[in-house]
Specification:
With 373 residues, the protein is α/β, with parallel strands linked by helices. It has 13 helices and twelve strands. Helices cover 41% and strands 14% of the residues. α1 crosses α13, α6 packs across α11 and α9 packs across α12.
Length: 373
């Protein structure tokens, strides 16, 4: 399992590895597992969780191409003599005649129209080319939603028989620790609307800011709490969002909370008045699964794959139409308690359809297809 990245690793991908690697290592159809990780990434947490695995540091850059992974790593992989190479990051690397399975789990590079800054556009263009080469040359491709599969087969012409769908999982958080973030007052339970994710243009946060401008006269309007780090190279965009907030005199109604711990995220999901997802594009968003697993009242854009993931556990609005978003938020805030409980129950039931055990079993099944072939 070669985690070839540009040298970094997103929080969502770390969560994926923490959940899937121990399960793959323990799977009855996996005899041995060698995991390659970027040497620039601290994966001590993973090593501690599965000490019996074989680990391999990788020297990775944005432009790593086939057979340039580095000679020392190549020799270790050759000695390991794997039945299959699994690359979960849509980066291609080959070794003799060993079959390759790639996974596409990031749709942002494919949607260049949502990239507002030139350097980010250049990076995403390079990532897109790498992804396209990876899916064309791999023996099999894993898509993490039907939306991703439809894009690969419809837009890139990948044969449908070559692509399998394996959703990410979620753990139902019964009894999991939670902690109120310091920036939310002690009496703030249920008096804020929550959204989360790294701050990038494709997240569509302008919809929420404009919706709060339209909702400003609503009695008892909750605070809008935005969690997540500012994306790499996105300081200008973050400044633009703040200027939009100040221009509309919403600084007392909207606050950026930065990066939250997992326990703080759990508290926010469980105590917010509503969880809102304004993304223009996703693959299989962990944040959406977490919100449902914690029984949040969810509002989402109509952009795929969000309706595929939420189904009837969310209210929807057209992306880029903050007036429609304001309507959905006003509606959900005005629901009586019994209706809110019914929606929360639907969200938990929908989240139960996604499990890491199923993700692991289906991943192994996809790997076995090329090994048998």
């Amino acid at each position: 399992m070669l985690n070839i990245t540009s040298g970094g690793m997103s929080g969502g991908y770390r969560k994926y590895l923490l959940k899937i690697v121990p399960r793959l290592a323990a799977h009855p159809q996996v005899q041995a597992l060698l995991v390659g990780m970027p040497e620039s990434v601290d994966f001590s947490q993973l090593r501690g969780a599965v000490p019996a695995l074989e680990w391999l540091p990788l020297k990775c850059t944005l432009f790593t191409v086939a057979r340039e992974i580095d000679r020392c790593a190549r020799k270790v992989i050759e000695r390991f003599s794997p039945d299959v190479l699994f690359l979960p990051t849509a980066r291609y690397w080959s070794l003799d005649s060993i079959p390759v399975v790639n996974m596409v789990q990031n749709m942002k590079p494919m949607m260049l129209g949502y990239t507002a800054y030139r350097m980010e556009w250049i990076k995403n263009r390079a990532r897109f080319r790498q992804m396209r080469k990876a899916v064309e040359r791999s023996n099999r491709v894993v898509a993490i939603s039907q939306f991703v599969k439809d894009y690969l087969t419809g837009e890139l012409g990948v044969p449908e028989t070559k692509v399998g769908v394996v959703y990410h999982g979620i753990e139902l958080n019964c009894g999991q620790a939670e902690e109120r973030p310091a920036c939310i007052p002690e009496d703030g339970s249920g008096r804020f609307v929550f959204t989360a994710g790294a701050v990038y243009p494709y997240r569509g946060l302008e919809d929420l800011i404009e919706a709060w401008r339209l909702l400003r006269g609503l009695p008892g309007l909750p605070v809008l709490a935005i969690a997540g780090e500012v994306g790499n190279g996105m300081s200008r965009y973050y400044g633009r969002l703040n200027r939009l907030i100040l221009k509309n005199k919403l600084d007392s109604h909207i606050r950026f909370m930065g990066v939250l711990t997992q326990s703080e995220m759990m508290w926010c999901y469980r105590n917010c008045s509503a969880f809102v997802m304004t993304s223009r594009v996703e693959a299989c968003p962990n944040i959406a699964l977490e919100a449902m697993a914690n029984g949040s009242l969810c509002v989402s854009t109509e952009n795929p794959p969000l309706p595929e993931v939420f189904q009837d556990a969310a209210s929807y609005y057209p992306a880029g139409e903050p007036d429609r978003l304001a309507e959905r938020i006003r509606e959900i805030l005005g629901l009586p308690g019994e209706q809110q409980r019914s929606i929360r129950d639907r969200a938990c039931a929908r989240a139960a359809c996604f499990s890491w055990e199923s993700c692991c079993d289906r991943t192994v099944a996809e790997l076995r297809k090329v090994v048998r072939g």
